[in-house]
């Protein structure tokens, strides 16, 4: 335990996701040794995150304007929407360079034990998007790309139930299974089961 402001800083850093006590301590002492100008830049960046970041009116992704760069891109396929939980998931899919449609960020996943129900997520906005043609183009496919965990699966199941009555709409789920370069003997039963059920013809 350290005294005063140093311990306060370590405590606050330790509350960040993925930052344990030792990492918090290392960051705190790094900041102590940093020039004042660097600290001011960090303070300014943190302030701008709270004041300058907005969420896209269309998809809910983080943006500097009312529409994010993806929703403003005329080359994107308007008929294809990928539903993700968080803005960080958009970046993960974008890194693949495989998806050419648009996104819909839910803002989380269903978790009744934590008080997160359908009303706390952007599900109603998704239903409105599907029911309304964008620039004269109807959405023809929704890809559900929620996390492959209990909350993500519950969210995917709920969305499938809500979307199945839309005429002409195809609802798909992001495939999950064995990672490239992995060995079968080290795969857990759930992952291996998913890989089997999601097999494709060759």
Taking pLDDT < 50 over at least 5 consecutive residues as the criterion, the unreliable ranges are none
Task: Give helix % range.
Answer: 40-55%
Q: What kind of sheet is the major sheet? A: 4 strands, parallel
Proportion in β-strands: 5-15%
**End-to-end Cα distance:** 60 Å
Specify the number of helices: 8
Strand order of the largest sheet: 4-3-5-6
Write down the Rg: 21 Å
* DSSP strand count: 6
> Quick one: overall form?
globular
InterPro entries: DNA_Rcmb_RecR (IPR000093), Rcmb_RecR (IPR023627), Rcmb_RecR_Znf (IPR015967), TOPRIM_dom (IPR006171), TOPRIM_RecR (IPR034137)
Pfam families: RecR_C, RecR_HhH, RecR_ZnF, Toprim_4
Keywords: DNA damage, DNA recombination, DNA repair, Metal-binding, Zinc, Zinc-finger
Protein name: Recombination protein RecR
Q: Can you walk me through this structure?
A:
The radius of gyration is 21 Å and the shape is globular. The protein has 8 helices and 6 strands. It is α/β, with parallel strands linked by helices and 202 residues long. The strands form 2 sheets. A 4-stranded parallel beta sheet has the order 4-3-5-6. A two-stranded antiparallel sheet has the order 1-2. The longest helix has 17 residues, at 36-52. α1 (4-14) crosses α2 (21-32). The model has no long low-confidence stretch (mean pLDDT 89). 42% of the residues lie in helices and 12% in strands. It starts with a helix and ends in a 5-residue tail after the last helix. The chain has helices at residues 4-14, 21-32, 36-52, 69-72, 87-94, 123-131, 150-163, 189-197; strands at residues 54-55, 62-63, 77-84, 101-105, 141-144, 170-173. Keywords: DNA damage, DNA recombination, DNA repair, Metal-binding, Zinc, Zinc-finger. InterPro entries: DNA_Rcmb_RecR, Rcmb_RecR, Rcmb_RecR_Znf, TOPRIM_dom, TOPRIM_RecR. Pfam families: RecR_C (PF21175), RecR_HhH (PF21176), RecR_ZnF (PF02132), Toprim_4 (PF13662). Belongs to the RecR family. May play a role in DNA repair. It seems to be involved in an RecBC-independent recombinational process of DNA repair. It may act with RecF and RecO.
